[in-house]
Amino acid sequence: MSVTGAGLKATGRFAMERTLAPHVDEVWAQSFCLELRLLGVDGARIGAALSEVESHCNESGQSAQLAFGTPVEYARSLRLPVDGDHSPRAVLRFLVPVSVQVLGMFLVVWSLVEWLRDQRLEVTTGHLVIAAAFLLAVMALVRCAVSVHRLAVIHRRLFPVIAVALLYLAGTATCLLALRFLDQVLWRTSGVWGVVAGAAEVSGGILWAVVRRRPPGSVDDPITSPFDHEMRAP
Amino acid sequence: MPSDQPWPSEWLRGVLEVCVLRVLEDGTTYGYAIASRLADGGLGVVKGGTLYPLLNRLEAAGLVEAEWRAGDGGPGRKYYLLTDAGHQELQNTADQWSRFTRVTASIISGGHDVAEDKPVQDTSGVES
């Protein structure tokens, strides 16, 4: 009884919860699974934990809320083993190589313009501050991955709008202030070197992403019934 | 005090593990059956939110093993089985609890001769 993304699309919201735990309130079950996902528990363990709630509720006739308390607290109290590859932090960690590529791309474009104008490239304190702020923002995002995921799921309509607006404002303000007030030239060089450095950065970022690529199938981690697991076991 | 919970929760937290191990000593069984046995034994209602995290901890500690079995017309059940380490842990903890309850009963009733039930002090590393 594997419930995959395709299955969810086919039967709509709460499809997985209704399939695995028909006697458990679907909102409770969804919150429970979500919390375990956010903690980085793999799909097979989530399915087994939900099935045990289902078994208990069915036999006792109690609601999940009465027997187990709030889904978030119960999910945390189980202290299930965490699969590092499926934690929100691991997912967001893949932003880091992409960020390096983006910075390299900006460097290539900027240097290319100066090179074509036959002007020297001037690296100022402001440029370094902008690059550092960008990388710090990405690292902060990775560090706060669980909270960011939780906000994104709970406020799925408002969160993208507010997050994009805040990032845009903060990024623009940082760039404007850094370029306006931190204009001390640290280094002058030919634009061609900037193109080379930017291209190397893009290539390095791509290589990094390839090296950290997940094996095929590891990204797909459906919540499954424990009986699927038992049947697959030798 | 609610009628379904005759004992203070602080007491239950301490004794629940040994009680669960004792129920499992009688044979492989599943969560709801354990909760029912404890309730029938007079411990009161042990909620799933308390019982299953404990069973998970026992499983992680190697004191119990678990396997899923399909139910007869109902949902499957996760059955728990006491391991050898679990039997040993039960024996040790049950002995300790017996001594502890004798000591506390004696103190509460005003008795004084409880010396033989005092826990064995670990004197290793203490200079004589």
Write the layout of secondary structure elements.
The complex is a heterodimer of chains A (234) and B (128).
Chain A: E1 2-3, H1 5-11, H2 15-20, H3 26-39, H4 43-60, H5 64-68, H6 71-77, H7 88-93, H8 95-116, E2 120-124, H9 125-143, H10 145-154, H11 158-181, E3 185-190, H12 191-211, E4 223-224, H13 226-232
Antiparallel strand pairs in A: 1-4, 2-3
Chain B: H1 9-25, E1 29-30, H2 31-40, H3 48-60, E2 64-69, E3 77-82, H4 84-108
Antiparallel strand pairs in B: 1-3, 2-3
As a whole number of angstroms, the C-alpha radius of gyration of chain A is: 24 Å
Largest sheet of chain B: 3 strands, antiparallel
Overall mean pLDDT of chain A:
82
CATH architecture term of chain B: Orthogonal Bundle
CATH class of chain B: Mainly Alpha
Give the full name of the CATH homologous superfamily of chain B: Winged helix-like DNA-binding domain superfamily/Winged helix DNA-binding domain
Structural class of chain A: mainly alpha
Strand order of the largest sheet of chain B: 1-3-2
Helix content of chain B: 40-55%
Structural class call of chain B reads mainly alpha
The overall strand count of chain B is: 3
Number of helices of chain A: 13
Low-pLDDT segments, ≥5 res of chain A:
1-10
Query: Which range does the strand content of chain A fall in?
Result: 5-15%
Rg of Cα set of chain B: 18 Å
**In one word, what is the shape of chain A?**
elongated
